[in-house]
Amino acid sequence: MDSFIWDKDRKSRTGVAEAVLCSHKSSQDLQSIIRFNIEHTNRVLFTRLSAQQWEILPAELQQQLDYDKCSLTAMLNVAATLAPSQEVCIVTAGTSDLAIAKEAQRTLAFNGYQAPIIADVGVAGLWRLMDRIEDIRQYKIIIALAGMEGALFSVLAGLVRAPIIAVPTSVGYGVSAGGELALNSALGSCSPGILTVNIDNGFGAANAAIKIINQFTTSP
Amino acid sequence: MDSFIWDKDRKSRTGVAEAVLCSHKSSQDLQSIIRFNIEHTNRVLFTRLSAQQWEILPAELQQQLDYDKCSLTAMLNVAATLAPSQEVCIVTAGTSDLAIAKEAQRTLAFNGYQAPIIADVGVAGLWRLMDRIEDIRQYKIIIALAGMEGALFSVLAGLVRAPIIAVPTSVGYGVSAGGELALNSALGSCSPGILTVNIDNGFGAANAAIKIINQFTTSP
Amino acid sequence: MDSFIWDKDRKSRTGVAEAVLCSHKSSQDLQSIIRFNIEHTNRVLFTRLSAQQWEILPAELQQQLDYDKCSLTAMLNVAATLAPSQEVCIVTAGTSDLAIAKEAQRTLAFNGYQAPIIADVGVAGLWRLMDRIEDIRQYKIIIALAGMEGALFSVLAGLVRAPIIAVPTSVGYGVSAGGELALNSALGSCSPGILTVNIDNGFGAANAAIKIINQFTTSP
Amino acid sequence: MDSFIWDKDRKSRTGVAEAVLCSHKSSQDLQSIIRFNIEHTNRVLFTRLSAQQWEILPAELQQQLDYDKCSLTAMLNVAATLAPSQEVCIVTAGTSDLAIAKEAQRTLAFNGYQAPIIADVGVAGLWRLMDRIEDIRQYKIIIALAGMEGALFSVLAGLVRAPIIAVPTSVGYGVSAGGELALNSALGSCSPGILTVNIDNGFGAANAAIKIINQFTTSP
Amino acid sequence: MDSFIWDKDRKSRTGVAEAVLCSHKSSQDLQSIIRFNIEHTNRVLFTRLSAQQWEILPAELQQQLDYDKCSLTAMLNVAATLAPSQEVCIVTAGTSDLAIAKEAQRTLAFNGYQAPIIADVGVAGLWRLMDRIEDIRQYKIIIALAGMEGALFSVLAGLVRAPIIAVPTSVGYGVSAGGELALNSALGSCSPGILTVNIDNGFGAANAAIKIINQFTTSP
Amino acid sequence: MDSFIWDKDRKSRTGVAEAVLCSHKSSQDLQSIIRFNIEHTNRVLFTRLSAQQWEILPAELQQQLDYDKCSLTAMLNVAATLAPSQEVCIVTAGTSDLAIAKEAQRTLAFNGYQAPIIADVGVAGLWRLMDRIEDIRQYKIIIALAGMEGALFSVLAGLVRAPIIAVPTSVGYGVSAGGELALNSALGSCSPGILTVNIDNGFGAANAAIKIINQFTTSP
Amino acid sequence: MDSFIWDKDRKSRTGVAEAVLCSHKSSQDLQSIIRFNIEHTNRVLFTRLSAQQWEILPAELQQQLDYDKCSLTAMLNVAATLAPSQEVCIVTAGTSDLAIAKEAQRTLAFNGYQAPIIADVGVAGLWRLMDRIEDIRQYKIIIALAGMEGALFSVLAGLVRAPIIAVPTSVGYGVSAGGELALNSALGSCSPGILTVNIDNGFGAANAAIKIINQFTTSP
Amino acid sequence: MDSFIWDKDRKSRTGVAEAVLCSHKSSQDLQSIIRFNIEHTNRVLFTRLSAQQWEILPAELQQQLDYDKCSLTAMLNVAATLAPSQEVCIVTAGTSDLAIAKEAQRTLAFNGYQAPIIADVGVAGLWRLMDRIEDIRQYKIIIALAGMEGALFSVLAGLVRAPIIAVPTSVGYGVSAGGELALNSALGSCSPGILTVNIDNGFGAANAAIKIINQFTTSP
């Protein structure tokens, strides 16, 4: 793959390093990219690296990567142990949202931030959310994930001071299949101040959170 | 309009009387229908009778009708004073849902049931709903109205024992314009047991409530 | 799966017990949930438990569950024999709707109500429906299932006093593929008083029926 | 308007004469077309000639045209009195479908066929249809019109031997607004043998009926 | 499958016999239906009987059926040899439309009509259509099939006297994937008098053609 | 309007000068832009300048502009008389497409190219197109306009060597309302080599034609 | 309007005060709300207060309000003069986005932040953006507005460190009409870290920016 | 397959030879077509010939074909070695667009034009595009490919004089899945003069480019 151009300055330019979206890429292209980055000792995050794509990678490459099969992410040359942080907290409506929640969590970790996941607090049983609301209020930014009708976004935004980054997930069936309904519920919410990213885009939500933190904790 | 056929047995057959949906009807057709029913001393409910349609009706017909310009409903030969009832309660997310809420209320009244409207308890300020939740719990059936993202339906269904008849309203803009989003939020809710009718269909919600009451309070 | 929160009070709060929607859940998560409920001797209903998910469960867990491969439901700790009941009747347009009809039937059974299925009475041969209409009229609530263009909902609603809970099914092809057409036919019906749930949501229809029965046969 | 080309041979080529669809045409263009046809003594049908377009035509042109404000059609040089015919019958679900029904009726008349309209036999009150079904069965082709959920098409097709030409109408609101739902109900019907035309296309339905009659009553 | 109701009078009532749509049916249900009809010596047409469904049928049932793997149709107790007929001709835009064309052809054959297929006459090479147009003009009804943008329908309808029954096919990719584009081209055609059925519905097109022939060649 | 930035180098950079899209602009903003360009003696094309916008412009500004109410375009400081040219020809399916055809024609004229309009050659009467096909073949680029089902694009592309720039128009009703159907017919055509622009975008089609001519008749 | 409930604690709970969305509200309801807030000397922001709604307000109420007819916002009891700030900058692709840009600007001003508008820097002329990019880089948060295809969002996000809050606007025609295309371009961008709000929701974008600032400049 | 009609004159008529779209074709049909063309020594291009279709072709046929598994194209009787050319350049936003880029490249090669691919110059890192812009400016026509939000089309069109033929690709997820978003971004671009083909239609883009070159480099 001679057509590949590494955007090595993206971090200094935009505050977040380039990551490799693995879907739609052939195994051959993936291997070229991994080898290139091993050679240059780059720290790299790989997202949407499917189990099938992972399994056919040569063992020598697998050994260099820290792969997580739930979130379908892998990291290269990342060894930091993170200290607890009060910057970002990840909240999910159901257990089915965990894969995407972990994509966000791993992306934050790759960038140096440890973020807890508070799961299964959807509004069908409002007490589950209310039981955890004080914990949630300790964080400066909330990444919230919900599929189906996405009512969690509106309720949460009415209860906390933190900005909500809504990640609609493709969990549901019938009219809620594919995540479009949860997406529109975030966008069309009666609670002002919700910010939205693409369906299942835990990576993008984490990137946005990092950009916010960068801007407000370092000089611009 | 010689092509008009009155379904005079609908009440005995289905439990709810035929009503006249006025939209898409010419003034001439409307007048024929009103006169026909005046002659036969029928009790009739007219829905979606727009201000324009109302204003060009002859005064002699207007005088026979009890018209409500907010809900766009009119009644003919209906004079009952209703006693308070614990059967149905109407709950709205915002003040913009009131026109449709009143269509439901007037339809219930036409059929003999007084139902209160508890308005403006949308989930952006959850305390507004929690303040009224005990009142709402006193009723056997809840008709809930919400536009925008319709998160009220899911939250309410998780808090009460009564069946929820959700009426999505066409209140909103951008992705929530037209009511489709609120409709899908009712259908795709994570809270089981929500029943849905068409967008802005306060009349249908009231009819369904009446059918339920009829079935369970009279012998089938 | 440490993130799982059991909503043990849902039944007392809403009248229907929490059920487990198995789709989008990993085998590991499912096993945790099943073991948790075996330990606590909870009565539980599992829905959308696919054949693949079922087959890879350990035999020891399978033995505890009453699994039905047509409706993809399983029950834990449910042993009641039900007496015939006149509360709910399930009506289907075609034989292809049977899987969802049985999901509704099993959900009702889990909650203590026996409901018959009257199948294959779609309107292409109206006599099939008319032959059974008197039987259908014996029930207080009708759960009706139809795919394709869903004309059954409108015809049925014009013939009976009972409220109709319409379950659109994803049976069809071309413009009727996926169930959206049948869903909209239920919502947009010319017969007033039809109540609708999500596509293929037999579980939700049964829950709504139970909520209605609870409200009208027990003190609120 | 020098760019206008009259398809004078369309009748001999396809069996139906060219008609003038007036929507999207300026008053100037309309006048040119009318004058051209007056000069050539052509028999012409004008469709979708709105009240506004009609009112601003010069009186001299209005006097030459037989305009019907309900169906928005006008005829030029058409004077035939028609004998009753058993070829085509027009059936409507509601009174709101009458404008389009009359467009079909006038188009048939322009081509020499008298067709009765049997109106207001929608399936919400099935007896209304059953009362007229023997009359309807006397005709060789049925043009059926319905808006909302269009259930009439399926029921009718299961009851008669004649081919049904379904004309979905833009009568409805919420999910049935615009006629798309009725259109899809005709296309996706469980009753085989329904033929469909565009929404509100009474003209097209009549043309198709005439083509059928032409083929089977004259040598090809 | 005790819930199966055979509509044995459909032929006398509507002019076309009931057929069995095999998609969405389990193998067990299919076998019940086949055995039932073998026992009653019924003539039956099975449609959308997939290769997978066919292969797992017991050999004893396979031997009774005349199966065509291209059109996915099977016939039971049908042995007629048909004489050439000038009633219906089937025209396709491309070779990819042949499977659906043969579904129409086999449905016509089941009902006693032999219809030729004139294939690959799409408008990208207009001369292919013009070369065959005189042949096509010999038939009383034309069933036309096209996928992609469906331009064949409009061109053909402007060239012949016969009514066109348009069958949009799900041939295409990008904006024409699934057949919706070809469907809408048939419905929205600038050529009047095109009649449309559902996407890939060769069966329905043939049924409609038979209903037309029945009405005009036998006394009603 | 101090926020307005004139892209004075666009012509040298891209080969086409910046034009002013007037829709969504207030009268005040329009006047600022016109005065700015009068002062700088710029040659400017204004598109989608509605009759309402035109009428409320001060007479002093109107006098400077060459306004065409059919195409809703205006030109400033453009006085060239054009010689006939064989570069581009504009073809329309119906007379209703003329406004957009003239937008393309005026945009070409503004850039120095005279292009004829060959109108009303839609495929419902194929002979109208065939009568003019030799004329059309004289041009190097064809801009084709069609609404409804847009079959003209496919037929034309199969008959000529010139590249076709398809402009779908918003002419139609029901499924063809708004131009989406004609757009998709151009994109999904079975005839290869059709190039498409946005619905009603005569301006864009002309710009593309000019870019092609610039590239091939001047040194790059 | 006795059903109106003022959420007076929203600011302390969520960091942003309740505002009044005026669309869908009757003049009578609006007057009640304005008088209520005059009586309680509340600082209030009114959004989407149309010219028609404004003009029929009594002069005594108009005099209390600071109304801006471009952004359709009004403020009550707001007199602060703001100091320049480096927190937020508003960037627009075209001049047609200014009304929504000013809604965001006024909402920020109501909350105490002065934000400049850098307008007309869409990517059709990339130099316009590059000329201003250093200015834009001085701000901590960027609110970006674009209609049509919304390419500005992706380009900008690749050039700056600040988080981008994208406001898609309903500027465009054909496939870009209504803002859905610009919305999806923001959500589906190849540049990570873009955050999106509903179409034309300048108010929501400003609210989100304020929530971010609140969290990072005050103790949580 | 006796129904196959070779359009042998298409090249002389339209300037581009007929190609064979292999999707939706059975192996048997494909073999017939290949053998037919081997016998007639035709030069043929096969597109969308999937790996599965390729693998089951008889070895004797495979040996005659030049198959490229990335672009899924095969050529028969094509042996030309091409000289470098300045006519067309192919530009892609990402490496995931390469398969379609190569379909365009191979189609151009089949017609005698060598075109380079400049890959991975999407706008998230604008410098990648700016680094190559002078190279790109050397070509007369640019075929640009992008998936996701397709912002490359607008930026590129503002930077070069060449006409842009935009090929939206089905690369993306969530709101950008399937290519519809990139397609609409090309159509709705703020940069005038972009020409668009169907999603993933590299073949069509190449054909259009060839038609342009043919028209301007040979006498018409």
CATH fold descriptor of the largest domain in chain A: Rossmann fold
Largest sheet of chain A: 5 strands, parallel
- Uncertain segments of chain A are none
Strand tally of chain A, please?
Answer: 9
Question: How far apart are the termini of chain A?
Answer: 37 Å
Shape, per Cα inertia axes of chain A: globular
Strand ordering within the main sheet of chain A: 6-5-7-8-9
> Which chains have the largest interface?
A-G, 44 and 44 residues
Domain tally of chain A: 2
- Name the CATH class of the largest domain in chain A: Alpha Beta
Instruction: Summarize model confidence as the mean pLDDT of chain A.
Output: 92
**N-to-C order of helices and strands of chain A:** HEHEHHEEEHEHEHEHEH
Structural class of chain A: alpha/beta
Per CATH, the architecture of the largest domain in chain A is: 3-Layer(aba) Sandwich
Helix count from the secondary structure assignment of chain A: 9
Fraction of residues of chain A in helices? 25-40%
Describe the model.
Chain A folds into two domains: 10-76; 88-214, Rossmann fold. The first copy, chain A, contains nine helices and nine strands. The first copy, chain A, has helices at 10-14, 27-39, 51-55, 59-62, 98-110, 126-136, 151-157, 180-187, 202-217; strands at 20-21, 44-47, 65-68, 73-76, 88-92, 117-118, 141-146, 164-168, 194-196. A five-stranded parallel beta sheet of chain A has the order 6-5-7-8-9, sandwiched between helices. A four-stranded mixed beta sheet of chain A has the order 1-2-4-3, with helices on both faces. Chain A is globular and about 50 Å long. Chains in contact: A-B, A-C, A-G, A-H, B-C, B-D, B-G, C-D, C-E, D-E, D-F, E-F, E-H, F-G, F-H, G-H. The F-H interface holds F 10, 13-16, 19, 86, 137-141, 157-163, 165, 183, 187-188, 191-199, 203-204, 207-208, 210-212, 214-217, 220 and H 10, 13-16, 19, 86, 137-141, 157-163, 165, 183, 187-188, 191-198, 203-204, 207-208, 210-212, 214-217, 220. Chains A, B, C, D, E, F, G, H: Residues 86-218 form the PurE domain. Chains A, B, C, D, E, F, G, H: It comes from Paraglaciecola aquimarina.
